[in-house]
Amino acid sequence: MPNTGGSAFSDKRGSGEAGSIRYHFSRWASDNMKISEISDILKATVLVGRERLDVPVTGGGSADLMEDVLAAATEGCVLLTGAVSEQMIRTAKVARVAAIVIVRGKKPGDAVVKLADSYGLPLLLTKDSLFVASGKLYMAGMRGLDGSW
Question: What is the pTM for the complete model shown?
Fold first, then answer.
């Protein structure tokens, strides 16, 4: 690839669009990302919690083991997980997670969705793997749970 003096990432859609890497770097460097913006970046389906999409998150983390969520989650963070159990929803509630993104296109059962809805906990679904979804949010400027880039 010839060096054109720009970023190694191509930006075929132009600056300012939701999928633009340049837009995300400049936009997210100073502001907390909102749940709606996470949904846009991951092309996620919102299963429940649409009324809370304007809530900003404090950072993000990825875990499939609920003990890891309890050990590391910070209040107001987004949790990316492949776990689709009621225990995952209860754990996220105890940890004061702002939203849950279920990865790999896994579909939670009705009981899981109803429980998240009863807690007012936004539940999103993306086809991306845990690795890819985490990377997209990181590249968009989301901080990790320890505040790191």
Answer: 0.78
